[in-house]
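Lab notebook page, bench 4
Experiment: in silico fold of construct C2
Operator: M.H.
Input chain length: 244 residues
Purpose: comparison with the prior construct
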Amino acid sequence: MGKTFFIDTTRCTACRGCQVACKEWKLLPATETKQQGSHQNPPDLNGSTLKVVRFHEYKTEAGKVVWNFFSDQCRHCLEPPCKDMANEYVKDAVVTDKKTGAVIYTEATKSLSKEAFEGMRESCPYNIPRRDEKTGLVMKCDMCYDRVNAGLLPMCVKACPTKAMNFGDRDEMLKLAEQRLTVVKKEYPEAQLVDADFVNVIYLISDKPERYHTAMVGEDAFRMTRKTALARLLSPVNVFQNII
C-alpha cells in the first residue's frame, strides 16, 4: 500500500519548521532573497527549495484580516503527468517508487532539454518542477522515500510541532482527513479536502482555494494536462525525436 501525506492547514502556524527541516535533511543551500512585501520567504519554490510555506492575506467584507498558510510541495500524483511527459523525452527521467508511491526525479532529468523541461513543468497541475541551474537536475520533494523505506517519517512531518503534517498508509490518512474535515466544517462550512482522489499529498483547507494559492487545486487542470500530455506524446515531432 502506498503512503500519503495529510496536511491540515488549520493547524499550520507558518513556523516554517517543515521548510527548514527539508533543506537540512537534503543538504540544500539557502536561497538568497530580498524583502518583497510578504513574510513568505523565499517567494517561490526553486532548485534548492523543495517546500515553501505560502502566505496569503486578505480582508473580509466585515473588515476582518484573514491570513492563510500552506506548505506547498509536490503532490505525488497517483498518475503523474510530469512522468508521462518527461519520459517521452528521456527514459526513466521520472519514476514511481513501488513501495511508497513517491514520484521521483532521477539523475536522467539532467538530459532533458530546455523545451522538454518546460513541457514537463507545464504538464504539472500544481506548477511544481524546478530546475537547479547549477546541476541541471529537475528538483522537487521526493517524499523522503529513503527515510520512509527505513521506517522513518519524512523529515518535514517529523519536524512539525502542531501535527498539521501527518503521514502514513493511504487508507489511514484518508480516514483521518475525513474525520478532521467533519470537525473543521462545523466552524468553516467551506472547508474541503483538495484533490484527494488524485494525489498522495492531501490538504485540508478551511477557505476558498484561491485564497491560498493560484495552483492550490489542480483537479480540472489535471484532467486537461493529461489530455495535453497524450497529444504531445503522439505528436510527429516527438515521434521523430525518438527515432533519431
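Observations: Confidence is low (pLDDT under 50) at residues 239-244. The helical segments are 17-26, 81-89, 114-123, 145-148, 155-159, 170-185, 219-233, 236-243.
Next step: discuss at group meeting.
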